[in-house]
Amino acid sequence: MRKALDTFDTGLARNPRVRINEKAGGWISVTPLTAQPEPTNLAYGNQAVILRAWGRLEEAMALHKEQEALCLELGDKDGLSRSYGNQALILQDWDFGFTPGGLS
């Protein structure tokens, strides 16, 4: 713990994005970072889960297919596994005749 705090303390003085202000005994001021775009593969998966919950299975499957293609392109094995699992759930819903509000 002490080593990590020493590294933090020495690095803080050399970091151009961090300033120690005189205000109230030394407030730490940090320059905001630019926002990074949301990972596309997560956005597809989250949207698809919501669509599935609403019973919009075809749209959910299309998003999971887009997520699958993106994961294959990026070599994201974990994302690919999640996508395949969610596609299997949608196929299961189709098999059981899922409709919004329950099984028909």
List keywords for this structure.
104 residues, mainly alpha, two-stranded antiparallel ribbon, 4 helices, 4 strands, 10% strand
Describe this structure in words.
The longest helix is centred in the last third of the chain and has 20 residues. The chain starts with a helix and ends with a strand. Helices cover 62% and strands 10% of the residues. It has a two-stranded antiparallel sheet with strand order 1-2. The protein has a domain of 59 residues. It is mostly helical and 104 residues long. α2 packs antiparallel against α3 and α3 runs antiparallel to α4.
The radius of gyration is 23 Å
Extended strand count = 4
Query: Which segments are poorly predicted (pLDDT under 50) over 5 or more consecutive residues?
Result: none
Beta-sheet strand percentage? 5-15%
Roughly how many Å apart are the termini? Answer: 58 Å
Q: Record the strand order, biggest sheet.
A: 1-2
Counting DSSP H or I runs of 4 or more residues, the number of helices is: 4
What is the share of helical residues?
A: 55-70%
Largest sheet: 2 strands, antiparallel
What is the N-to-C order of secondary-structure elements (H for helix, E for strand)? HEEHHHEE
Give a brief outline of the structure:
With 104 residues, the chain is mainly alpha-helical. The chain has helices at residues 2-14, 40-53, 57-74, 77-96, and strands at residues 18-20, 28-30, 98-99, 102-103.
Helix and strand topology:
Elements: H1 2-14, E1 18-20, E2 28-30, H2 40-53, H3 57-74, H4 77-96, E3 98-99, E4 102-103
Helix pairs in contact: 2-3, 2-4, 3-4
